[in-house]
Each structure stands twice: as C-alpha cells, then as structure tokens.
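Problem 12. The chain below contains 87 residues. Write out its predicted structure in token notation.
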Amino acid sequence: MANRNKILSDLSKFAVDAIGAFSGLKEEIETIVSLRVNKIIKKMNLVKKDEFAVLKKTVEKLVAENKKLEKNKPKKKKSPKKVLKKK
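Solution.
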C-alpha cells in the first residue's frame, strides 16, 4: 500500500512539474511570436494607431479651416481684359 502511495505521489509531482513546464513553454512561444510580428510590422513601416488618430484629427481640423477660409474669401472682381489692336 505504501508503495502505491509513493507511485501516486511521484505521478502527481510529475504532473505538477509538467504543467509548470508547459506554462513556461506557452509564455516563451508567445514572446517569440510577438517579437517576430513586431519585426514584420517594423519592416512594413506601418503607422501606429495612436499616431494615425492624431494625424487624422489634424487633417480634419485643416480641412474645416480651409472650408471656412474659402467661405470668407472675398470674391475677385473680374478686371476687364486689355484688347490689343492690330495696326
């Protein structure tokens, strides 16, 4: 009976150690995948989402300001064209 308990104890220790190893392996794989994805993104020269949002707001402000300026722009009077007479 004591021999059986020792075997079960050893199996439970082995299972606990295996679970710990697999959780460490999972973290290691996640780290490797994350690094490779970041490397690919840097090669592609992509813009980060927060940088894009800032740029988008700036462009929207400039477009609104441009429209406002166009509405307030005084209209030019057409100047009469000078006609050259042939002699």
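Discussion. The mean pLDDT is 84. Students who got a different answer should revisit the alignment rule from Section 12.3.
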